[in-house]
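Re: that backbone. Tokens:
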């Protein structure tokens, strides 16, 4: 089998497999390959995002190395799998290290070609966002487990905790008493985000004058959400924003909602949108319960 046929087979097994045959054939003809040796670093933290990689043969591990030289491994990838897309999607420098495990052959998609694929085939972008969402959920669980172990191993007595808090407050009050221009102990609250009724929100949405944003965690969004709403939870804001809102007119009305218990998340998402330059952000008064109570359209997860 010649190299072009091999490349085509790899592409048909990869995340790019749903691209049109013409596009896959052109990629197989034009993409270069890179052979890496055992333990060779493909890219490291701080490197510019210059390419997306698909593994033809061999294995690659992706990990981070902390300042104390300890490492945390994210994944070990094999033929047909890919890596390097996160920095290309965010536009930030590499945050992890990719290294060959034994000799490996890679298909290299330059950043310019990757950006064109994302632009021309929006479903591909959504695939990457879904992958990153799953990674975030997995990493959140790992972090929670590690934090729980750390807390149990370093837990002191409640008296120690109270003493530390008390000393901190005493020092802060003393500093501000002696310095009239001291640091505020309680930060100023931002201007409140205005509320909008369910009726007015529905009218604005039906007239295509507004986007509706669901700030609830993705698992709650999948169970039930306002029909046509975009999911933009605070914990995954940057990734979801890049995929769905980066091109939206900043003057467009944005209506954020959640459920009764998720009000802090609604406010956090609304404030993040304001910081991104949106000037007309509102919060749905009463959230999803009021919307449903008024009989307005919702979408639910299909029952099996």
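Recovered sequence:
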């Amino acid at each position: 089998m010649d190299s072009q046929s091999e490349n085509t087979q790899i592409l048909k097994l990869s995340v790019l497999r749903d691209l049109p045959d013409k596009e896959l054939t052109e990629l197989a003809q034009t993409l270069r390959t890179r052979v890496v040796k055992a333990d060779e670093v493909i890219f490291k933290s701080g490197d510019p995002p210059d390419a997306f990689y698909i593994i033809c043969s061999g294995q690659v591990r992706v990990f981070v190395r902390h300042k104390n030289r300890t490492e945390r491994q994210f994944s070990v990838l094999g033929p047909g799998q890919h890596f390097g897309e996160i920095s290309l999607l965010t536009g930030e420098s590499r945050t992890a290290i990719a290294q060959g495990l034994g000799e490996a052959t890679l298909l290299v998609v330059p950043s310019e070609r990757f950006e064109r694929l994302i632009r021309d085939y929006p479903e591909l972008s959504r695939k990457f966002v879904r992958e990153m969402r799953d990674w975030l959920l997995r990493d959140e669980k790992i972090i929670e487990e590690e934090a729980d172990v750390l807390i149990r191993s370093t837990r002191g007595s409640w008296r120690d905790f109270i003493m530390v808090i008390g000393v901190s407050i005493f020092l802060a009050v003393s500093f501000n008493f002696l310095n009239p221009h001291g640091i505020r102990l309680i930060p100023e609250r931002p201007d409140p985000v205005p509320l909008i009724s369910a009726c007015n929100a529905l009218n604005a949405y039906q007239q295509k004058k507004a986007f509706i944003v669901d700030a609830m965690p993705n698992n709650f969004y999948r169970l039930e959400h306002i029909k046509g709403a975009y999911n933009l939870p605070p914990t995954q804001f940057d990734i979801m924003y890049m995929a769905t809102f980066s091109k939206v007119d900043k003057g467009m009305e944005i209506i954020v909602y959640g459920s009764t218990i998720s009000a802090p998340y609604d406010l956090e998402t609304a404030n993040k949108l304001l910081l991104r330059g949106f000037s007309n952000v509102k919060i749905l008064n009463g959230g999803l319960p009021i919307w449903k109570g008024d009989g307005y359209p919702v979408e639910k997860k299909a029952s099996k």
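The CA atoms of residues 46 and 94 lie 5 Å apart. The chain has eleven helices and 13 strands.
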